[in-house]
Amino acid sequence: SNSTGRGEEARSMTPVLEGLFWLLTASVLYVYCGYPLLVFLAARVAPRPIRAQAYEPTVSLLIAAYNEQAHIGPTLTNKLALDYPPERLQIIVVSDGSTDGTDDTVREHAADGVTLLRQEPRNGKTSALNLALRYATGDILVFADANSLYDPSALRHLISNFADPEVGYVTGTLAYLNPDGSMTADGCSTYMRYENLIRTWESASGSLVGVNGGIDAVRKGLYEPMHADDLPDLVLPLKVVAKGYRVVYEPRALLREVAHANARDEYRMRTRVSLRAIWTLSDMSELLSIRRHGFYAVQLLSHKVLRYLAFFFMAGTFITAALLWPVGWVYRLAFVLQVAFAVAALMGYAAERAGRPSRLLAMPYYFVLVNAAALVAFCRFLNGKRHRTWNPRLG
Q: How many CA atoms, within 13 angstroms, populate the side-chain half-sphere of residue 133?
């Protein structure tokens, strides 16, 4: 009978669905747990120490700013007070077509040696950095955000790593502040602590895959002008690795920045960054060759490619668990746990909207936000969309 035939067909599909479920589940676990464990073991089994020491080369600190009048003044005051010889520190601000008082505020610091450049028409941070390169005189280029506040010793700690001739790029620690108690900001802070832990192990075993764009530095001779829609936080480190130099993490170089308190702003920022990163990975896919780049190719695949595809693995796990509900308790439990996690994320969203933050709900809420942003970014990538400019604090 037809019903018997359909039953046999369903039974024949069960092994396929089970295999798919376990493959997808293993992929999710590898992305968030397995890869961190892998680099932790690599750092223990085959460590590569960094020969950092006191070092004072000339430094050009570059800041791209668009309508940052409210923040550029305190930022410049902060940079001018850094524990580094003033005669060896050049500060350049590129105003990216600003229409507020950003330029006037920067000019007030001209007597302190701050250089103002203006980019017209507005063309984004990456083009602004390319412009600043023409005027930079330092041996080391440091990239700072217009709203970033460094610890007094941050620059000295960052630069000390360049005493090691194998090091071509260094990034510091981004610590998000959460003065409003926002769940979005709380989730973001937890996420960054997780990322910084992975960077510690990546650095100890060789090179990082991604950096903190508000406090990072590169040897000037390794900087290559980028396309306007390139993500400098990813493109430059990848190019440095391709040239045979290390990209390392300096936890003592601390940057404090107020996190987005608004979920919409954070979502926009994550979508923008994810889209530009996916384009970078597509354009520089040769670095995924294990034959040519060894363990670093595994890192790039694990930390970036698979991370940006995690939404696909999780959706697949959810669907296969639902289809396998009649087969056994393991699949029913997997389905229920995923539903519970989604409900927790929705409750987190509701709590955020109601102004009643909950630390317990912050992580599932932020986890779903990040992966939703990756999903949207991937769809835009498939549609050929690119992104080069954005509005400060609006993503």
A: 17
Nearest to 76 by CA among 112, 47, 40, 46: 112
Cα-Cα end-to-end distance for the chain: 59
Residues 56-68: what's their mean pLDDT?
96
pLDDT score at 55: 94
Angle at CA 102, nearest 5°, toward 99 and 105?
A: 145
106 within 8 A of 116, measured Cβ to Cβ = yes
Pair of tokens at residue 291: 């034959």
Out of 10-14, 277-281, 370-374, least confident range: 10-14
Q: Which two tokens stand for residue 361?
A: 């709900």
Residues 6+ apart with CB under 8 A from 377: 271, 272, 274, 275, 277, 278, 308
Averaged pLDDT of the chain: 90
Q: How high is the pLDDT of residue 246?
A: 97
Reported confidence tier of residue 395, pLDDT bands at 50, 70, 90: very low
| Secondary structure string (H, E, C) spanning the chain | CHHHHHHHHHHHHHHHHHHHHHHHHHHHHHHHHHHHHHHHHHHHHCCCCCCCCCCCCCEEEEEEECCCHHHHHHHHHHHHCCCCCHHHEEEEEEECCCCCCHHHHHHCCHHHCEEEEECCCCCCHHHHHHHHHCCCCCCEEEEECCCCEECCCHHHHHHHHHHCCCEEEEEEEEEEECCCCCHHHHHHHHHHHHHHHHHHHHHHHCCCCCCCCCEEEEEHHHCCCCCCCCCHHHHHHHHHHHCCCEEEEEEEEEEEEECCCCHHHHHHHHHHHHHHHHHHHHHCHHHHCHHHHCHHHHHHHHHHHHHHCHHHHHHHHHHHHHHCCCCCHHHHHHHHHHHHHHHHHHHHHHHHHCCCCCHHHHHHHHHHHHHHHHHHHHHHHHCCCCCCCCCCCCC
Q: Looking at the predicted structure, is the pLDDT value of residue 130 above 50?
A: yes
Query: Among residues 263, 262, 261, which one has the least CA distance to residue 345?
Result: 263
- Which pTM value belongs to this model? 0.88
- Report strand pairing: 140-144 vs 215-219: antiparallel
Say if residue 352's pLDDT is above 60. yes
Q: Is the pLDDT of residue 278 over 90?
A: yes
Q: What is the pLDDT of residue 323?
A: 95
